[in-house]
Amino acid sequence: MEGKYCFKTKMKFFERSRLFALPVFALFLLGGCVKSNSSPVPGADDVILIGEVDSMTGPEATFGIDTYRGITLAIDLANANGGVKGKKLRLISSDVQGRPDEGARAISKLITQDKVVAVLTGTTSSNALAMAPLAQHHQIPMVASAATAPKLTTLGDYIFRVCFIDPFQGATLARFAATNLKAKTVAIMRDVKSDYSVGLADEFLKVFKANGGVGIEAPLLGGDGWDSPKLKEIGGDALVGSYFLNFYTADDPSLHVKGFITAFQSKFNEIPDGSAAMGFEAANFLINGLKNAKTLSSKDIREALGATRDLPTLNGKMSVDSYRNAVKPAVILKINKDTGPQYFATVNP
User: Fold this and answer.
1) Mutual orientation of helices 195-208 and 166-175 as an angle, nearest 10°?
2) Could you state, in order of their start, the residue ranges of all structural domains in the chain?
3) Alpha carbon distance 314, 272 (integer Å)
4) Is 344 helix (H, G, I), strand (E, B) or coil?
5) Between β-strands 326-327 and 316-320, what pairing exists: parallel, antiparallel or unpaired?
6) pLDDT digits (tens, 9 = 90+) for 168-204
7) How crowded is the C-beta side of 341, counted as CA atoms within 13 Å?
8) In 3-state terms, what secondary structure has residue 230?
9) Can you point out the beta strands (E) in the chain?
10) How far, in Å, are 116, 161, 172, 285, 337 from residue 238 at the CA level?
């Protein structure tokens, strides 16, 4: 049966407060940076400093807070298992409020003043694109968990990502709409101020090769930015029957995923969303690279990250291609009225 589908690239979710975030916000007001207390802080020779740049406040806070949670969980687990090369990992996190200019300032401070060996970030493409040139200039590895703009990793050989890129998302959703949903016309809504939204929409349109009118009653198709606790609160029943592409699904029965969910729930008392999962993945990708690096020099860390092959993740095995992008499966979730987002299909790269 043919149908009409409306593809929406991004929803902005606002999070005013969470009990978890209150002490963090208080520290941000004092200095814009908080050093994680999740790990012991022995002498400088006994720790490996890792930087994090995320949006803990502002319009992207719902993503930033969960990314931070995923990262801290991975670091806590690594430290509980002996750390890396006999050293404990220590996280230094900065809140950039969703602003690219703040992202650039934050990564510069982490590199030049805090002397971190690498930087993790769950910020959007616009923020990551502002940070990457500085990481490359100082030759410090930067790992993005959510920035999907293809341009990002072309900015230098110290820039990596663990998420898939816009062409993969857009093309996958376009094929899904045409093949699985039998759609013949689409309406596309995009945020022209967002590199993520524009890139995803352009790739979808290029592959789908169709456009249609607005004001239709049809399921929506969305990208990874839809995976947030705020989705149902904002969209309500209007989203029932819609689909979105994501990095992982909590429905996965594998022991790896169930172990992650159990550990996350024990620490934060809620089921992790995609941002938390990708923060966890980014941190584990970096930790794996640190373990495999010959030394903790930037060059050796970069080479170890670039050599990643078949790393177990929450959604199958991940490798890094020649452009330092992740090659890994994706899942499509369907939004149901009573149960919310549920697994629908797996898409291999």
Assistant:
1) 40
2) 3-12+166-252+331-347, 19-164+253-327
3) 12
4) strand
5) antiparallel
6) 887 888 888 878 888 777 777 667 677 767 777 777 7
7) 31
8) helix
9) 3-8, 33-35, 47-54, 88-95, 118-121, 142-144, 159-161, 183-189, 220-222, 243-246, 311-313, 316-320, 326-327, 330-336, 340-347
10) 45, 33, 23, 37, 10
For the chain, the maximum distance between any two Cα atoms, rounded to a whole number of angstroms, is 66
Q: Is 222:241 a contact under the CB 8 Å cutoff?
A: no
Identical fold, 3-12+166-252+331-347 and 19-164+253-327:
yes
Q: Which two tokens stand for residue 21?
A: 């975030």
Q: How confident is the model at residue 205 (pLDDT cuts 50, 70, 90)?
A: confident
What is the pairing mode between strands 243-246 and 330-336?
A: antiparallel
Q: How many residues does the chain have?
A: 349
Task: Please give the single-letter amino acid code of residue 87.
Answer: K
Tell me how crowded residue 17 is: count the other CB atoms within 10 A of its CB: 10
The string of pLDDT tens digits covering residues 46-98 is 899 999 999 999 988 989 999 999 999 999 999 999 999 999 999 999 999 99
Q: Are 9 and 191 in contact (CB under 8 A)?
A: yes
Alpha-carbon distance of 125 to 105, in angstroms, equals: 16
Region 3-12+166-252+331-347: CATH code? 3.40.50.2300
Q: What does the buried/exposed string (b/e) look like for 114-126 if buried means 16 or more CB atoms within 10 Å of the residue's CB?
A: bebbbbbbbbbbb
What is 19-164+253-327's CATH number, 1.10.20.10, 3.30.420.40, 3.40.50.2300, 3.40.50.920?
Answer: 3.40.50.2300
**Closest among 13, 8, 63 to 242, alpha carbons compared:** 8
